[in-house]
Write a structure and sequence with these properties.
The protein has 239 residues and is mainly beta. It is 13% helix and 33% strand.
């Protein structure tokens, strides 16, 4: 009987420590974490430069899912990049993602929403979301999953195969930028420095005057024309 009671207590403690998908534990709430996705609706998200959201973005099994119904250019018809309603400056962002075989997407941050720009990547740097096994971008250094897209090559590959969940974390605090993918640090750099500006000048973004310059902005989930899923999207603002 005592062993059974101990087992029940341990089970209850386990549930108290680890939140279900798209929820926060008591500890996370105390630490200041907030959900950016409630697991049921797309509240708090909209298409870039719009007050609506395309029908290709839907809720599937507790995740934000881009359903590839019909291609329209390099994106999905009824899709398009989506952004948070709020802007963030110093923060820690965590989420899980999975990508379809040979798929491509991205987590883009510090996005400036303005009709001056057509796409989120014209201002926001990107943590690459990719199936490294067969997407053509995987052949290019700085374009693989977990990379700071086209700017920094990660020292270690830690991405999981297509259709498996990956845990990603982005931390930006007073210009100090860090990426982790499945617990492995992928990027550690400083933004808004002469070295940062030189890095941009050596990239495909060199002619985009607003790229990587905003100290705060929206978080974006990218439509790159492929099936992708996101869940457990949480943010903690840093002081």
């Amino acid at each position: 009987m005592k062993k059974l009671t101990l087992f029940v207590l341990l089970l209850v403690a386990s549930f108290a420590t680890y939140a279900q998908d798209n929820t926060l534990t008591a500890k996370e709430k105390k630490q200041g974490w907030k959900l950016l996705f409630d697991g049921k609706t797309l509240n708090g998200w909209h298409n870039f430069n719009s007050d609506k959201i395309g029908e290709a973005w839907e809720i599937a099994d507790g995740s934000i899912h881009l359903n590839k119904k019909q291609q329209e250019g390099f994106q999905v018809k009824g899709g398009g990049d989506i952004v948070t309603a709020d802007e963030f400056e110093n923060y820690e962002l965590s989420l899980e993602w999975k990508i379809a075989p040979c798929g491509n997407s991205g987590i883009i941050f510090n996005v400036v929403e303005s009709t001056q720009y057509q796409y989120v990547w014209q201002t926001g740097p990107e943590m690459q979301v990719l199936d490294n096994a067969c997407h053509p971008d995987a052949k290019i250094e700085k374009h693989r999953a977990g990379n700071l897209y086209d700017l920094i090559k990660s020292p270690t590959e830690s991405v999981k195969p297509a259709n498996e969940w990956n845990f990603a974390k982005i931390k930006l605090n007073k210009g100090h930028l860090q990426f982790w993918l499945n617990g492995v640090k992928q990027v550690d750099t400083k933004m808004f420095t002469p070295e940062w500006e030189a890095m941009i000048k050596g990239s495909k973004f060199k002619d985009m005057k607003g790229f990587g310059m905003a100290k705060k902005g929206h978080i974006s989930l990218q439509d790159h024309g492929d099936l992708v899923w996101f869940k457990n999207i949480k943010i903690k603002e840093l002081k």
